[in-house]
């Protein structure tokens, strides 16, 4: 007591200093916590947009993509905001009235104006990529093909968006950008982990693309695409088979069966009881059909279903030619293909068909069995079982399922073992699997060649660490000034 009194007398300010330090310390902590909380509060997110039109052989679809304006180079951040399916056929079907090709896009483009905020319209890039239908039209008639492209260009230029061009993309681009899309959406590119191969089945062409090691790729330069993405080098094998999309393959198979020139064609790829009259010209008019319409036949024939999956596969096998392989190994039609390296994602018609047939998770043997059963089911029963399904698709599922089986096994050489590496997919993280997203990411330079430098700590981690260190310093400080605190003793003093 005497000591304390003595101390107080020596330093009359000491309790005032301690109080001041404590108040300042508490104020500092409150300020730090407030800063940390405010700093971590999410900012009002601003978005950017991009629009890509997929002008396919069977139809056109308008994809609207959205991504946060701040982090354009972060993988997995662009997502599909909306898809509008254009009514009517693909633009290549407007060869008799090209001006209608552009008109067909107007409704979806109006929708796009509503989905993209008005303040972003002018800066939103707009692309149109045409695929196999237009590739075929350009082979048939370049002049009409240009007119169709001119017609869609006119309409797209009249929209408020930043029009970047309408062009026919190559089969190689279609394959490679499909591969980029699925690996970007899976977040595999930034991680630099193993990638997924892409199998795309369209109406008029089909693409196979997968990463492979360099060995043997020198064999065929036209099947090689290289990318440097996020600091990783990729060597891709890619091939697009024009005329081997689902619709053209069906025409090829039917044309080959109709070559005999009878008034009716008994087709194992259609269910028993199916019967439709068809014009020869509807089958033989495609540039994919080399043979001409059989001579000395009528105008039309009756297409009759026989419903036999094994015979159907035999008929399909005949559309894969075998002119000999000039490489170490080939898929079909003499096209080079290195050993397949999975896993694979199979999309577009691969998914539509296998999903309908409930075959997305079956073994190869199980798939064959189910196809036998499906094809041998009478047509009237199929129609009864699936009243809501478009009749054209329904009639073709026996052919389509067998075509997929044959393309993957006889064509691409998948086996019972490698079959299980295929996943049939429609969407990944809400965005459709297809070439459009990869195309836009490439044209807008949204995937950098080198991995961007990132701070050692994320923002929230940095603020938390700062707060923690400050608290530790403050506690140490309090302990070090403890000696200045007035000592209170509870011991009763015996005088
Ligand atoms: N639900 C469905 N069931 C069966 N087939 C379908 C279904 N939806 C679409 N298809 C068909 O699947 C095929 C592929 O469609 P997709 O839109 O991917 O091709 P595309 O872009 O028109 O063709 P390409 O890429 O060859 O130009 C087309 O023949 C289309 O008619």
From TrEMBL:
ATP binds at residues 203-207. It catalyses: GDP + H2O = GMP + phosphate + H(+); ADP + H2O = AMP + phosphate + H(+); CDP + H2O = CMP + phosphate + H(+); CTP + H2O = CDP + phosphate + H(+). Its EC number is 3.6.1.5. Keywords: ATP-binding, Calcium, Disulfide bond, Glycoprotein, Hydrolase, Magnesium, Membrane, Nucleotide-binding, Transmembrane, Transmembrane helix. The active site is at residue 174. It is found in: Membrane, Caveola; Membrane. Its cofactor is Ca(2+); Mg(2+). The chain crosses the membrane at residues 12-38, 460-481. GO terms for cellular component: caveola. GO terms for molecular function: apyrase activity; ATP binding. InterPro entries: GDA1_CD39_NTPase. It is a multi-pass membrane protein. Catalyzes the hydrolysis of both di- and triphosphate nucleotides (NDPs and NTPs) and hydrolyze NTPs to nucleotide monophosphates (NMPs) in two distinct successive phosphate-releasing steps, with NDPs as intermediates and participates in the regulation of extracellular levels of nucleotides. By hydrolyzing proinflammatory ATP and platelet-activating ADP to AMP, it blocks platelet aggregation and supports blood flow. Belongs to the GDA1/CD39 NTPase family. Homodimer; disulfide-linked. This is Ectonucleoside triphosphate diphosphohydrolase 1. It comes from Umbra pygmaea.
């Amino acid at each position: 007591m005497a000591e304390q009194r003595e101390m107080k007398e020596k330093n009359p300010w000491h309790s005032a200093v301690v109080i001041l330090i404590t108040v300042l310390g508490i104020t500092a902590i409150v300020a730090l916590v407030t800063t940390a909380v405010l700093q971590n509060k999410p900012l009002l997110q601003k978005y950017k947009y991009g629009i890509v039109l997929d002008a396919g052989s069977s139809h056109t679809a308008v994809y609207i993509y959205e991504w946060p304006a701040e982090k354009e180079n972060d993988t997995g951040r662009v997502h599909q905001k909306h898809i509008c399916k254009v009514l009517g056929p693909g633009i290549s079907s407007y060869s008799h009235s090209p001006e209608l090709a552009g008109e067909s896009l107007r409704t979806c483009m109006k929708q796009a104006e509503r989905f993209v905020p008005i303040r972003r319209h002018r800066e939103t890039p707009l692309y149109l990529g045409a695929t196999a239908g237009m590739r075929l039209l350009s082979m048939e008639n370049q002049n009409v093909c240009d007119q169709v492209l001119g017609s869609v260009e006119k309409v797209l230029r009249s929209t408020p968006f930043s029009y970047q061009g309408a062009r026919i993309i190559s089969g190689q681009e279609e394959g490679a950008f499909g591969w980029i899309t699925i690996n970007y959406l899976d977040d595999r590119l930034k991680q630099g982990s193993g990638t997924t191969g892409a199998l795309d089945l369209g109406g008029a062409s089909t693409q196979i693309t997968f990463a492979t090691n360099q060995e043997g790729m020198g064999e065929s330069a036209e099947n090689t695409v290289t990318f440097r993405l996020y600091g990783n080098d990729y060597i891709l094998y890619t091939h697009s088979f024009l005329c081997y999309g689902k619709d053209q393959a069906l025409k090829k198979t039917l044309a080959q069966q109709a070559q005999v020139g009878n008034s009716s064609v008994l087709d194992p790829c259609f269910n028993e009881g199916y019967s439709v009259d068809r014009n020869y010209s509807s089958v033989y008019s495609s540039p994919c059909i080399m043979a001409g319409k059989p001579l000395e036949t009528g105008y039309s024939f009756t297409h009759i279903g026989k419903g036999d999956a094994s015979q159907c596969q035999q008929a399909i096998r005949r559309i894969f030619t075998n002119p000999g392989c000039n490489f170490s190994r080939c898929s079909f039609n003499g096209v080079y293909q290195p050993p397949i390296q999975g896993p694979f994602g199979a999309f577009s018609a691969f998914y539509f068909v296998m999903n309908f047939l409930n075959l997305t998770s079956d073994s190869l043997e199980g798939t064959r069995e189910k196809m036998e059963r499906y094809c041998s089911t009478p047509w009237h029963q199929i129609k009864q079982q699936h009243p809501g399904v478009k009749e054209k698709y329904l009639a073709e599922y026996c052919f389509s399922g067998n075509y997929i089986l044959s393309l993957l096994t006889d064509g691409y050489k998948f086996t019972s073992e490698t079959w299980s590496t295929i996943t049939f997919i429609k969407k990944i993280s809400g965005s459709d699997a297809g070439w459009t997203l990869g195309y836009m990411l490439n044209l807008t330079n949204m995937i950098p060649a080198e991995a961007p430098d990132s701070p050692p700590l994320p923002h929230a981690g940095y603020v938390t660490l700062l707060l923690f260190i400050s608290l530790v310093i403050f506690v140490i400080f309090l302990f070090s000034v403890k000696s200045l605190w007035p000592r209170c003793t509870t011991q009763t003093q015996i005088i």
